[in-house]
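Subject: two folds for Thursday's group meeting

Dear M.,

Sorry for the delay on this. The cluster queue was jammed most of the week, so I only got both jobs back this morning. I'm pasting them in the order they finished. Each block is the input sequence followed by the predicted structure tokens. Could you check whether the formatting survives your parser before we put anything on slides? The first protein is the one we discussed after the seminar.
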Amino acid sequence: MFGFLDVGARQLAAARRVLTHLAETCDLPVAVQLWDGSRVPLGSRAEETGLAIALRSPGVVGALLRRPSLDHLLRQYATGGIDFLGGDLIAFGEALRSAKQKVKLKHLKKSLLLKAAVPFLFARAERKEVQHAYAGDCNGQNAATRNNKDYIQFHYDLGNDFYKLFLDAEMVYSCGYFTDWNNTLEQAQRDKLEMICRKLRLSPGEKFLDIGCGWGGLICHAAQHHGVQAHGVTLSQEQYDYVREKIARLGLQDRVTVALCDYRELEGTYDKIASIGMFEHVGIANLPTYFRKMYSLLRDRGILLNHGISRRAKPVSKRSKKRRPEYQLVAKYIFPGGELDDIGHTVNVMETSQFEVHDVEGWREHYMQTTAHWCRRLMANRDAAIQEVGVERYRLWIAYLALVSFGFKDGSIQIFQIVSSKRASKGRAELPPTRADLYAPVANRAAQKVA
């Protein structure tokens, strides 16, 4: 027993010694709360911010020393070995990044770190496996094992009540459009739906298709405000049930329909097509099939708006299917089957699929803002979220939304809207000569349509 107490005392002393040295070297605006409840500030502003990283046991330190990977760090957070106190993950990220220039890890004393690690080498943490990982091929790069329906349902069928905790009232689960950075999420999503309709130049009576329609925000908005006949498709049972109820509640049965099916099963001809946040689920190898299918569904001169997340382009000689660790974690725990293309390759595939590309607009900063809103709203509804999906999955989602928000902020991930049209015959496209109509007041646009 006394030997055990001696080991525990040495572990606490070693941890404090390292943290004190780290504070002297790096001056970070957070503290570390050790398993005995004591706090060690990592910089001069730690007390001012009130932010602290909690380590629940010496075994957590030992586990991370033995397996120092991003995956293992996320597992420790998801299962409660690590916690964040005094603020949300966005606040933690911003605080640590604000001190980035002060961090001088190369000045840390290696001998001190090695000596302090010794008491933790055999410290055992309670073994907890993350329960909510996708069980199959989470990457989806093998066509033989790829199951789009399973992927969609893993991500979306957590229950509509869960998504209500952080989405806006219209349940729009894609990048908002902030005409002012101080706008609310609700305003940004309304402005996004309207901007999509304007870019498609929707007109009353047109047949409009939304591939991957989510909870029906766009098809209902397009029917109500632009007079189209709208049809949406989804592979999520939860979304399908919700959209059907929404259509009935709004009395739009004569103008809006929804189907539970794969986009590849669609038939018919449409004037305009939108694909919002569907693109990321397709997989790069399947993009030619994806765009050729939409081409077949459009009338000549019909307009397609493709809205999707992308990654930064790499030199052709270094292009590889190897994924960065953070992308692999997202595929494993949140978004199986997803794959990000670069914008140049996407445009190339669209053109080889015979689309004429008219406009490409980056919304990176808009999605940075949107995901930060989602992260904070979900954290504000922590208890309700845990009741819906459990504490582990709640923590995974918080980490995911914060990670994605900073990814957009740094530019490691991006998002683009591409406006293109089917050009089956020669001649002028059905687009105005300038973009002025996109930003005109509503009354002016109505007058222009009548004229």
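Second protein, same layout:
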Amino acid sequence: MNRKLIQFLLILNVLAIQSCSKINYLEKCWEKQVKPIQEELTEISFKEKRNQLGHNSQPWEKSKYSVIGRIWIGGNKFLKLDTIITSRGNKYFSKTNYSNDILLYQDYGENKLASVTKDMVFEELIKSARYSPINLIEYFINNQSLVSEETNQEYTIYSLNTEDKEIDIWIDNKKFLVTKITHLYNHDLYGDVKTTYSYSNYKNLHDSLWYANKIGIKKINGKIVDEVILDTLKISDDRELKLINKPEGYKIQESTEINKPKIKVNQYNEFIHLIELEHTDDRVMVVEFDEFLLVAEAPLNSDNGELIIIEARKIAPSKPIRYFVFGHHHQHYLGGLRAFVHKEATIICTEINKEYVEFIANAQHAIKSDSLHLYPKPLKTEIVKDNISIGEKNKMIIYFIGEKSKHTKDYLIYYFPDQNLLFQDDLCWIPKEGEIGKARDRQAGLYHAIKELNLEVDTIIQSWPVKDYGVKTIIPFKDLETSMGRKK
């Protein structure tokens, strides 16, 4: 036989042997972390330190919570009963019952089941990784045709990609244990963000089941960090355990109902226009100067920013938007910022939130692309220290009142001295009907700020809300004064 042919056949034989002997790390991992509890539930007591962003006083400020509870996991089930404790010591309970693509969920502080969509069911599968990788390992095993694989010397990474997210399971090549799981998805404000679950301090239960005793969670690309510690772990006596009974007629919705944009434009006077976005419950102000426009507020996301820009162009087609300003850093006021960066508007902000503005403007939005991602433009900012004045005719002054607002440290208000008019975001709560009550902290903070600045104010316009909650959003200043004189 020809020597070259023999060599070729030997190479084919070696390749065939290698192919047959290739290790399936996912299956090896499944055997150590899932198989031992395929037919039963494992009960786990846990405690965790949880941090969340919210309506806090400055960017990236976190609300801190302690959580204690129990989970039951195995056989494509995930059940959770937990108590969340606020920094003030308030306690709230929740229940989760996930099994065979059915999700029953009672949220913190609620006494009835939450409405659930198909997307939420899959999200619950991902969220279970906060306590254990078991459910995701099982899902990957059952959907191997959809999973890609990449191997290096230390790890094998299994990836599952959908239209709007990517989930990666990292398996240690020597120990056949999950070291981390990453979840990449779109956030309206922060763009492409990743949550990472890291598993450490592995222990062995009954010489069969391997589980991580400590889970570290990094959210929003590491900006927020949580920690979960598993206290005790045992095999449950009740394989058919249910925390919530499925009510008659209960069904999973196809998807979350999306509010269709509803926009109404009102001309307040000859140069101030108010755009009401009913679908977000916000009022935007467009100020027309001789040669340019200023837009104040843009709620939630880039899509709304683009809608506002379209309406601004209708108001003054030949005038560019030179400035965009937001009253404070909460998403209802700066969420559409990126659309204005793309239009090369200067973003007016404070030193307190400048870095936050830069983070938002520079974030990648590849999963759900917006105009700034597709056609990048440099960010331009102007800092308000005490105040800045814009325009000569129809003069507008932006004042930095910060902590005086009793709401956030970066708070701005907008004043029109020739009209004795003030625009602000969300500080006043004056009823449309009935007696005006005593001003609460925010309302009193606005009043004191106005007085300290010696502003002559007749009328206050408020951005939020637009929907009728029985409160005024075009507010006579005398009503604010009345609230300051009340004792109750």
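Two things I noticed about the second structure. The two ends are 105 Å apart (CA to CA). The first helix runs from residue 3 to 20.

Cheers,
T.
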